[in-house]
Amino acid sequence: MKLKFKFKIISEIFQENFRFIFFKLYISETLECLPADPKTILFAYSNDLEASVVSQSARALFVGLGFSVKKFANVRFDTSQSAEIYYSDNFKQFNTSVNANLPDPSLGFKSSSIGSDSLKIVENFYDISPFSLCGSIVVILSKRNPNENDITNLVTKVRSHHGMVHVISSNTPSGGSQPLTLYDLSSKTNGLTDFRNDDQFYNSQIRSVGLFWPVVLYAVNTVVSGNGSTVLPPLLQPCQLPNGANFAVTVQNHGPIDTFQSFHLSWYNASSTSNGGFHGYNSYFEKNSTIRTGGYTLDAAIYNMTLDYSYSDNTLIKMQIRQYNWIQINYWPPYAD
C-alpha cells in the first residue's frame, strides 16, 4: 500500500509580523495494482506427491494464462533441504523449471508426524520475492497437512499484498496433524480449496474459476450443518459481465465427499430480470471434487443472497462461496472472514 498526501489551505490570518496558515491534510491510499492487472503466480507443490501428479498439474492448471501473468514462480516443499523459489518470465520457462524440480522421495521427510512446511513457503514468498506481489495468487498442491493452526500473521501478510491462496488438497494426506489449516488460509484470502484424489489434481475447477477468472467479486464463508437455509451478505454486481458470473462453492472443508447432499444458492433483486439460482448436487461424476461451479448472466444490481443446504449429519461445515470473473474494476473487494 502506498499513501498519498494532499494539503488544502482553508484560511490565513495575518497578525503583526506573523502569517498563520490553517490547512487540512488528506491521506488516501494509492493502489499499487488493480484486480485485473497481470500478476505473479506461485505454484507450490509437496514433495510427497508423485512426480507425474505435479508435472501434469503444472501443464493443465497454468497453460494459457500468459495474458494475466506477470511472473511465474515455482517451489517444491516438504523436503529435508531448504526450498528455493524459481521465477520465470513465461509458461515455457516455468514448465521447464517445474520438471527440473519434481518431487524426489530421497529428499522427503522420514516421518508422518512431521508437519508440512507449506505455510513457511507462503511466508517466504511474500518476504523475500524480488518482484512486486500486489494481486499475487498462490496455488498449493498439498499432500501433507501442517502441524500449525495459527495463521493470523500469515493471513495479514497475504492480505496486505491483495493476495489470494488456492489449495488443491489430497483426499489421502501423508502426514501432519491440522487438516483445516490450509482450508482456513484459502477461506480468509478469498481463495478456494478443492479436495481430490491425487491423480485428479490436474482437473481441479480452480483452473476455470480461480485462475482463468482471477478477479473475485463476491466472497463469503458460511458455517452450516444438517438441513436448513441461511441469508448471506448481498451481492453487488457492478455491471452485466460479458462472460457471465462464474460462481464456485466449496461444499466440504475435508475430503472425500461424505456428508454433502445438495445446495441451492439463489439471488434476487425486485428490479432485475436475471434473478435465479445455482444448484449443486452430490452426483456420481462429481464425487472426486469438493467444488461445484456454474456460470450465469446477471444484470448490474444489488442482489439478496440465500443459501439452502442439505447434509446427512450435523457436523459443522464451513462453505466457501465465490464469484470470479475477468473485469476491470478500480477497487479491491473485501476479504471474507
TrEMBL record:
Pfam families: DUF7154. InterPro entries: DUF7154 (IPR055578). It comes from the Eukaryota. Residues 221-325 form the DUF7154 domain. This is DUF7154 domain-containing protein.
